[in-house]
Amino acid sequence: MDLMMDFLNSEKHFLRRENKLTKSSIMVTSGANQAFVNLVLTLCDAGDSVVMFVPYYFNSYMSFQMTGVTDILVGSSNPGTLHPDVDWLEKVLQENNPIPKLVNVVNPGNPSGAFIPKPMLQRISDLCRNAGAWLVVDNTYEYFMYDGREHYCLEDNHIINLFSFSKAYGMMGWRVGYIAYPNEAACLHAQLLKVQDNIPICASIIGQHLALYSLEAGPEWIRERVRDLVKNRELLTDAMSPLGENAVKGGEGAIYLWAKLPDNCSDDFEVVRWLASKHGVAVIPGSASGGPGYIRVSFGGLKEEDTRLAADRLRRGLQELVDDGMVQ
Ligand SMILES: Cc1ncc(COP(=O)(O)O)c(C=O)c1O
Questions:
Q1: Quick check: CB of 139 below 6 Å from ligand 1?
Q2: Cβ(177) to ligand 1 under 6 A?
Q3: pTM, rounded to two decimals
């Protein structure tokens, strides 16, 4: 009942053309989140250790927790680039016994908006292969790339790539995504299918029809729309200038900026509540991604005029926060 599998696999060689994946099989899922849970249930046992990097995608963290994978080793990121600390990963993969089952990265990142350069992801991949760990790369924001950067995927027998229709085609509620996993990992197919057959059975047929239609419209449709987001990013980056120089990072890809709050505002949940109730603007607390004292600001999903409105509110709120604190 995977209507789209043929299209992704063969017609126009979509996966090969778009992602240069030539040795991968496809499983269509009810979104990338279900794809991730499917993988955790397939690859991990309760009590296994896994690796993520802060700031991490909160849903993936929860997927580990709710399946009993409680030994979540969280690496740090370079504060300037938000790239994962690969030297730390090298040590963890060498020294931890048993070695972590899988390493998870999101590229470009949610919530960081940072883009991991190819040599760095290649090094992460090499470390995983040598240690015998899986590498799971979430490519949900593959088309959300700016300033001439180009998304890429790596392919190897220990790498699993995840994709989503939610953001690129605005299909959040239609629940379609897919897993591209190595053809040669034969045991993976049967175990993934076991989870798939017990949870969604298949992604909803109506969602898959819409996804097929979206694929026929093609990535060019997305790229045109993504171009407009650069203006939104600029408006919001500028609105956060009250936070000071170097406070705002990310935004190389995806739809997110990652901003450091002033030192006296470490309760980011409180700041987020205050920004919403007093200034009418919604952002995400960094603590949800393991980054207390930060906020995630999205520049996606709004027209420019609405982004200007949101940016004005955010600037006013942050200026007040810096000058006077959270005055009620
Ligand atoms: C990194 C990442 N992965 C997965 C998802 C969820 O995608 P889906 O709607 O396809 O489950 C999101 C959505 O916010 C995301 O940011």
A1: no
A2: yes
A3: 0.96
